[in-house]
Write a structure and sequence with these properties.
mainly alpha, three-stranded parallel beta sheet, 23 helices, 6% strand, binds flavin-adenine dinucleotide, binds iron/sulfur cluster
């Protein structure tokens, strides 16, 4: 920590008489909150590095590197502006590390943390008056807007929320009418990618001494965390964030819409921006991102498609998480059981080593465990890098452990799809996503996986399970060409799909969005259904042993 401490010391200002703010790891912006509105020379910030938090789950090392480097860079940037900085390091929950600081400096202000887990941690300081929670200015919509969109007991659906918000905000609207003539161009955005137009290469960043020091720390102190660290893929300064966003606007936006759902082994990123990790840290502010894209001259399917992601999906997921207390309390009064401790997403089974977390008070639990389809299988080691023999899964998993990144369609239609078809516990799959992706925090990963990816919450806010057989994967990707299985002949994913429908038929009956597949299932010959069951058992048992599937072994 020598370099960082020295640089901080070089920029230090007199801390006396400051109004102090606690800045959590994911509020790294002076464009919102007191840092945006008040005189920097009158303010002080407290930033915390908690080893306890880092050890809570086996987080990807790239994620820890991104977080720590950005936190340190942000602290230096604020010191440069004349803000006093208190840098706290320890191996305990935030509430423990901050209590003494708040007693010494006086009550700290904090924008309402986005993560429920952090809110639970900080709760005693709020009740003792040592921490004052103020509104989080990073969100684009309010909870009142969310409630208004579903007044009268309407079901939570992203589309309805998004349509309402477009009207409320006037974004992409002209004279009260949607630009382009309709509010959503979703149905036009489903092209596979065949190599043209060329997919852009993501920018690289020059690691500086601050990044190098963080990497050293991770390699010495947190070496048993999984995943590869690639320092040159880490945007860490305010300038880096700007560079990434300029690159995204120039290279991704035009073709974003049509190829939004495409997948390819020739490009991990296609026309996706890769800004989620920085947006979730508030290095890039969502309001600015949406405003910039709305002001661009773009094909409407791309412009609307992108804005829907940030103004629609991102905000909607946040509201659903808050409104249900992280899915502990559903709107109909159902209470969902929670895990007492955080899950490791199958890390121990794969590595053979137990993941040890520090002690936590009972209020900081391991998250809700809904499973409408009673899925409770363990996540196979294939998600940690053991070869499964399924080219689609192996390629995407390799990418994730190399980079901590994947775009939404690989997350949904490869990883969640396979997990759901195998009947994996939604909680375990969510914990895996939480540790593996650099942009994952409870408010966003839980709705996306517990809800959308696995149908663990039923139709609470999605209409149907997002599952498919090989036909969809073959149509939307080039993965099958490199696979030992054939999507038309013997791909196990297709049998898994039919067996999933058969197993869950009673729970899914009556869902109009799944009625057609269920009608096809009804026509499937009994011998084929029996074979689907056998293939499921074979895939489940082979992958559970960490072994690869081979076409010649298929039942
Ligand atoms: C199973 C599953 C798990 C996911 N887990 C996460 C997660 O942990 N963290 C996360 O930020 N996103 C998550 N997403 C949403 C989405 O996959 C990522 O936001 C996106 O892939 C990030 O890459 P990008 O910045 O290149 O996105 P782009 O394709 O360029 O999209 C632009 C932005 O839209 C926003 N966005 C789009 N869809 C969603 C969504 N469903 N929820 C929230 N924001 C959205 C993101 O901020 C993203 O940066 C998940 C989606 C699925 C299906
Ligand atoms: S053939 Fe099946 S397992 Fe192989 S890549 Fe295609 S969908 Fe995946």
């Amino acid at each position: 920590m020598k370099v960082f401490r020295r640089e901080l010391e070089d920029r230090s200002t007199d801390p006396a008489g400051r109004r102090w703010i606690f800045v959590p790891y994911d509020q790294l912006s002076d464009g919102i909150g007191p840092l945006a509105h008040e005189d920097p020379s009158e303010l002080g910030i407290v930033v915390v590095e908690s080893r306890w938090k880092a050890r809570r789950r086996p987080y990807h090392r790239q994620k820890l590197a991104l977080l720590l480097s950005n936190l340190r860079r942000f602290a230096l940037e604020q010191a440069e502006r004349g803000v006093a900085v208190r840098h706290v390091v320890g191996d305990a929950p935030y509430s423990k590390l901050l209590e003494g600081v708040a007693r010494e400096l006086g009550p700290l202000r904090v924008m309402r943390p986005a993560e429920r887990e952090l809110r639970a941690d900080l709760e005693p300081l709020v009740s003792k008056g040592l921490l004052e929670e103020i509104p989080h200015e990073g969100w684009l919509t309010t909870h009142e807007q969310f409630e208004a969109a579903f007044a009268g007991g309407k079901r939570w659906r992203m589309d309805a929320f998004y349509r309402q918000v477009r009207r409320d905000t006037g974004i992409l609207m002209k004279n009260g009418k949607p630009v382009g003539g309709k509010l959503s161009f979703d149905t036009e955005n489903r092209k596979p990618w065949k190599g043209e137009p060329a997919a852009p290469k993501p920018p690289r960043f020059q690691p500086d001494e601050i990044v190098e020091e963080v990497v050293q720390l991770l390699e010495s102190d947190l070496a048993d965390h999984p995943g590869r660290i690639d320092p040159s893929a880490l945007p860490t300064t305010k300038k880096d964030a700007e560079r990434l966003w300029r690159w995204s606007k120039r290279n991704c936006m035009e073709h974003f819409g049509p190829y939004e759902d495409a997948m390819s082994s020739r490009s991990r990123t296609l026309f996706h921006t890769q800004i989620s990790a920085l947006m979730n840290l508030h290095r890039l502010l969502p309001a600015r991102i949406v405003a910039d894209v709305a002001a661009m001259d773009l094909p409407i399917a791309s412009q609307e498609g992108f804005i829907r992601q940030v103004l629609g999906w991102r905000e909607f997921m946040h509201h659903v998480h808050e409104a249900t207390d992280g899915f502990r309390q559903l709107p109909d009064g159902t209470e969902i059981a929670v895990a007492k401790t955080p899950g490791d997403g199958g890390f121990a089974r794969w590595s053979g080593k137990r993941w040890r977390t520090g002690r936590a008070p009972a209020r900081i639990d391991g998250g809700a465990r809904p499973s409408v389809l009673d899925a409770d299988a363990e996540l196979p080691p294939a998600f940690w890098g053991a070869t499964s023999g399924l080219a689609c899964l192996d390629g995407v998993v390799e990418d994730v452990w190399e980079t901590g990144y994947g775009h939404h369609i690989t997350r949904l239609m490869i990883l969640s799809n396979l997990g759901t078809l195998l009947g994996v516990s939604p909680r375990e799959l969510t914990d895996w996503f939480w540790v593996a992706y650099t942009d994952a925090y409870d408010w966003v990963v839980e709705p996306n996986v517990l809800g959308m990816g696995t149908f663990g919450l039923g139709d609470l806010f999605t209409t149907k399970p997002y599952v498919s057989g090989a036909a969809y994967i073959d149509k939307m990707s080039d993965y099958c060409g490199a696979c030992r299985f054939s999507p038309k002949r013997d791909c196990p994913v297709t049998s898994l799909y039919w067996d999933f429908l058969a197993r869950n038929e009673p729970a899914l009956r009556g869902n109009p969005r799944i009625a057609m597949p269920l009608r096809s299932l009804a026509k499937r010959a009994p011998e084929r259904r029996a074979q689907d069951r056998d293939v499921h058992a074979w895939v489940r048992d082979t992958l559970a042993k960490g072994e690869a599937l081979k076409p010649e072994d298929r039942p």
